[in-house]
Amino acid sequence: MVDLLPSLAFLGAGSMGGAILQGVVASGVPVDGIRVTNRTRAKADALAALPGVTSVALEDEPGGNTDAAASARIVVVGVKPAMVPDLLREIAPVLRDDAIVVSIAAGVTLRTFADALGPDVHTVRSMPNTPATVGRAVTGIAAGATATDEDMALVRAMFETVGAVIEVPESQIDAVSTISGSGPAYVFLLIEELTKAASGMGFSEADARLMVEQTFIGATTLLAASGEDPAELRRRVTSPKGTTERAIAVMQDARLDDMFAAATAAALARAKELAAGA
């Protein structure tokens, strides 16, 4: 982790931008100033108490985005995807020469950023996921054409305050979204279905939830602590000719490998449609 993050501007701090902002603050890493903008006073007030953060409501200060962008080394664009081009054109004239513009907007390409900002502005596209809110994100980052190694190191350091980071070419960012971006929903679905199965065996709703949720939490904690391959941990639980072996056989017969391949392929196809404006 770096000793100091440069000045940051969060233009739009909804659920994802707000999670990253709060992660940066909670990390304790010193920052050379943080400014954040939101459209309404209510949203701005919700972030105003964060130490070291200047929170601006655009309804009170219409020039808040340009003021924030002009002051920052890293400018995080967190508005809704449809609003990104107009915001980029708004801030383009005031960006510092060394500014790094980071997108957390799903489906907005680096080409869109270059078209609005000009080809010389340093840009990075990212794909965080919702566990950023608890400091357990996986964030994919992709460098724009002029982004330097130093730029990427700074952006990586910012996102590492809320979890793990992988660097990929932009061509893989949509694929990142289908695995880690959508992945929490896949896990929640598995928890839902196993909880239903527990209820069907006569457990109360409270006991079913407790067993299933804590089993998932315990298993992933064990995986992280052990450093073992998940297949090896599965084998250790699966005694020959035992109950777990019988259950795993049923799941393997259902071709979970094909199901996950098909599901992620469908998500990737939709991501490409969204990127194309469909």
TrEMBL record:
Alphabetical list of InterPro entries matching this protein: 6-PGluconate_DH-like_C_sf, NAD(P)-bd_dom_sf, P5C_Rdtase_cat_N, P5CR-like_CS, P5CR_dimer, Pyrroline-COOH_reductase
Q: Which PANTHER family match?
A: PYRROLINE-5-CARBOXYLATE REDUCTASE, PYRROLINE-5-CARBOXYLATE REDUCTASE 3
Similarity field = Belongs to the pyrroline-5-carboxylate reductase family.
Enumerate the UniProt keywords alphabetically: Amino-acid biosynthesis, Cytoplasm, NADP, Oxidoreductase, Proline biosynthesis
- Name the pathway it acts in: Amino-acid biosynthesis; L-proline biosynthesis; L-proline from L-glutamate 5-semialdehyde: step 1/1
Q: Which domain of life is it from?
A: Bacteria
Gene from which the chain derives: proC
Start and end of every Pyrroline-5-carboxylate reductase dimerisation domain? 170-274
Q: What is its EC number?
A: 1.5.1.2
Species in which this protein is naturally found = Microbacterium soli
Query: Where does this polypeptide localize?
Result: Cytoplasm
Put simply, this protein is called Pyrroline-5-carboxylate reductase
- Please state what class of enzyme this protein is: oxidoreductase
Q: Which SUPFAM superfamilies match?
A: 6-phosphogluconate dehydrogenase C-terminal domain-like, NAD(P)-binding Rossmann-fold domains
